């Protein structure tokens, strides 16, 4: 089977968990942008709880154009701000300093298109979690895919209902777990900084237990 998904900004852990069952992943470039989604948002954890990182967009969040046509508003210094937030949240984690310079290099690159940025984030995180996939980008929009051949997760990994829709998250030790308890389905960055090279085995184990 193949997996098709909307293209997200440092996607929640659940997508990396599910992807361990696949060798080929397709990103829908023609799926329309939706506000309040992970297309331009990522959830990380700080000392006071969850923090939503949001990529600013030209024409704002109300647009309904295809993902391939959504542009980043680079007049704001959002990349520097996001990296500083990540460093503040995870400097105490076991693996942040190990990955810090590579991640900084990613955040110093300028991207015009949201999809290009999200794909760069996906590739970075896959390398750190040990994934081995071939990837593809759609060349047109297709409303439905044959469920015998495809798992269609477009618009199913949603901000509002993430933990209800995916109630069996990967469990691991988080930086501020002593303050807030375990917070499920954060950005994959949370898993990478907390577990490093152990992330892959945790993802595979969690998926096999579903």
**How would you state the average pLDDT, rounded?**
95
Strand order of the largest sheet: 5-2-1-6
Radius of gyration using CA atoms only: 16 Å
SSE string: EHEEEHHHEEHHHH
| Share in β-strands | 5-15%
Inertia-based shape:
globular
Number of strands: 6
Structural class: alpha/beta
- End-to-end separation in angstroms reads 18 Å
Largest sheet: 4 strands, parallel
Uncertain segments of ≥5 residues (pLDDT<50)?
Answer: none
> Number of DSSP helices?
8
Percentage of residues assigned to helices: 25-40%
Mind explaining what this structure looks like?
The protein has 210 residues and is of the alpha/beta class. It contains 8 helices and 6 strands, in the order βαβββαααββαααα. Strands 5-2-1-6 form a 4-stranded parallel β-sheet, with no helix packed on it.
Architecture blueprint of SSEs:
Layout: E1 2-5, H1 13-19, E2 24-27, E3 41-46, E4 49-54, H2 78-90, H3 96-107, H4 114-129, E5 134-137, E6 150-152, H5 162-165, H6 177-180, H7 188-195, H8 199-208
Parallel strand pairs: 1-2, 1-6, 2-5
Antiparallel strand pairs: 3-4
């Amino acid at each position: 089977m193949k997996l098709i998904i909307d293209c997200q900004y440092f996607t929640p852990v659940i997508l990396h968990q599910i992807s361990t069952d696949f060798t080929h992943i397709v990103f829908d470039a023609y799926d329309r942008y939706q506000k309040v989604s992970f297309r331009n948002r990522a959830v990380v954890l700080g000392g006071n709880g969850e923090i939503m990182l949001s990529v600013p967009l030209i024409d704002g969040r109300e647009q309904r154009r295809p993902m391939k046509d959504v542009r980043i508003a680079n007049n704001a210094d959002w990349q520097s701000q996001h990296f500083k937030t990540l460093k503040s949240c995870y400097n105490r984690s076991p693996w942040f300093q190990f990955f810090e310079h590579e991640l900084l290099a990613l955040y110093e690159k300028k991207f015009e298109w949201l999809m290009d940025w999200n794909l760069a984030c996906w590739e970075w995180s896959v390398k750190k979690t040990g994934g081995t996939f071939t990837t593809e980008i759609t060349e047109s929009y297709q409303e439905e895919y044959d469920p015998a051949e495809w798992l269609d997760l477009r618009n199913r990994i949603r901000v509002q209902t993430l933990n209800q829709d995916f109630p069996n998250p990967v469990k691991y030790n988080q930086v501020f777990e002593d303050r807030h308890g375990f917070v499920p389905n954060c950005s994959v960055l949370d898993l990478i900084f907390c577990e490093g090279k152990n992330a892959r085995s945790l993802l595979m184990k969690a998926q096999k237990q579903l």
